[in-house]
Amino acid sequence: MPARGHGTVPLFNPSEPRELPHYFTELKFLFASCGVTKNAKKKALGIHYMDYNTSEQWLSMSEYQPYDASQPALLYSYDNWKHTVISLYPGTNAATKYSMADLDRIMGEAAHTNIKTIGQFADYYRKFYQ
Fold it and tell me: What's the confidence (pLDDT) of residue 129?
């Protein structure tokens, strides 16, 4: 696995929650290419690349804690932990990815912009379909 701060590590900015599923997709690719299969190692590496505040929050989750034989093993799985992390960030669910407020904002910006070139139209188009 690449070292923290290396240019190839997955990144997630908590102020951009829509990027979280992409972060976990990148981690999945790294786990596969580096042979990481253990739940505890995956969770540790998932937190390893985060900023201090985010890592502290993710570490404090009960799903992150070490395996407890008195509890169902599924509770401590990487996938369960990942699902719980994702649930902390509104807007990460594909069904609720964009709101009407997003559409209103984009259309409002376009209404006050004089689109004259194909490049300007392309910029608007990408914002609309982001």
Answer: 57
